[in-house]
Specification:
By secondary structure, the protein is of the alpha/beta class. 30% of the residues lie in helices and 15% in strands. It has an eight-stranded parallel sheet with strand order 3-1-5-10-9-6-7-8, sandwiched between helices. Helix 6 (218-226) links the parallel strand 7 and strand 8 (230-233). The two termini are 26 Å apart. This is Arginase.
Length: 368
């Protein structure tokens, strides 16, 4: 499916997704916030269990919103269509699968609902932003995106490959496995989990590029090496520089044919000195400049169709560190939609002169 390039003033949808596959108090409500300003986003509320002892990632969307995401997008001239609220209900007595995989039915059902919502948004011609929550949500966001855009490609920016299978994971956490459910090449390596019968692999190895890897498990490394998946570790970024890495990335993904890009960004791709409020920080990550360059180059392709921003965890850092991490997330998203380090300047019809009408008469058309 060929899509027309997107402009900064294009209408797009932001799903605020508090979904996580980590364990939490099943009686606690997940309370993301309703976006009601010029840019209107989805309100997604989730109640249910998860799979890791450290809680808080479900609060990430609220922190990102509080950091000024709406205001920033408003200043960029973005318009957002509100597709309504999504809510996820956990499955009672969600038993561990194969003595290993935690909460498969709840995670599967939530991702199925998210996939349907993303499908609706993209089918309506909007770019779709999903704010998590943990990275297990990519099962739903990419699956839903692929229903409308089966030729999509994925840029996955993360300290981790998240490509363990249910048979290779040592933790049982589904947020470390989403890519394995999406790759056609791993179809015969991934067992059918309860709640996952709807998932259909929608990517091939050449459709995926990783950036920022620096904590990869042995089975994941085997998959990357043997299944034709392009990846750039932090060592590669140090060696080549971010400009060359992005040139090679975009050549791989859209060099031969233009197609929609799904940009899936885990905040732990950044160095923990920049993004301390996240669940699995790894030293030696992206600098601010490298992260912004990646997002800017994705925007410059004109092919961005969907964005995931995940793993901001407000309970794992001091207040000022949480705010810094959330502001960083806002910068990533804003750079995807036209913010540049030259400034996001309004485009005017003309400059006022001494004899011209008041400056306010100049029509502000868009922001770049």
């Amino acid at each position: 499916v060929s899509r027309e390039p997107f402009s900064p003033s294009e209408t797009f949808t932001v799903f605020q997704n508090g979904f996580t596959s980590r364990p939490k108090d099943p009686d606690a409500s997940w309370l993301p916030t309703i976006f009601t300003e010029f840019v209107v986003t989805e309100f997604i509320k989730h109640r249910g269990p998860s799979t890791e002892s450290r809680r808080g990632v479900e609060l990430g969307p609220g922190a990102v919103k509080a950091a000024g995401l709406l205001t920033r997008l408003h200043r960029l001239g973005c318009r957002v269509h509100d597709f309504g609220d999504l809510s996820f209900t956990s499955v009672p007595d969600d038993e561990i699968y194969n003595n290993r995989i935690l909460n498969p039915r709840s995670v599967g059902r939530a991702n199925q609902e998210l996939a349907e919502a993303v499908d609706r948004a993209v089918s309506a011609g909007h770019s779709c932003v999903t704010v998590g929550g943990d990275h297990s949500l990519a099962i739903g966001s990419i699956s839903g995106h692929a229903r409308k855009c089966p030729d999509l490609c994925v840029l996955w920016v993360d300290a981790h490959a998240d490509i363990n299978t249910p048979l290779t994971t040592s933790s049982g956490n589904l947020h470390g496995q989403p890519v394995s459910f999406l790759l056609r090449e791993l179809r015969d390596k991934v067992p059918l989990l309860p709640g996952f019968s709807w998932v259909k692999p929608c990517l091939s190895g050449p459709d995926l590029v990783y950036l920022g890897l620096r904590d990869v498990d042995p089975p994941e490394h085997f998959i990357l090496k043997n299944y034709d998946i392009q990846y750039f570790s932090m060592r590669d970024i140090d060696r080549l520089g971010i400009q060359k890495v992005m040139e090679r990335t975009l050549d791989q993904l859209v060099g031969k044919r233009q197609r929609p890009i799904h940009f899936s960004f885990d905040i732990d791709a950044f160095d923990p000195t920049l993004a301390p409020a996240t669940g699995t920080p790894v030293m030696g990550g992206l600098s601010y400049r490298e992260g912004m360059y990646i997002s800017e180059e994705i925007h410059n392709t004109g092919l961005l169709s969907a964005v995931d921003l995940v793993e901001v965890n407000p309970l794992l850092a001091a207040s000022d560190e949480v705010k810094a991490t959330a502001r960083l997330a806002v910068d990533v998203i804003a750079s995807c939609f036209g913010q540049t380090r030259e400034g996001a300047h309004a485009v005017y019809e003309r400059l006022p002169g001494p004899g011209s009408p008041d400056e306010s008469d100049s029509q502000e058309r868009a922001r770049i």
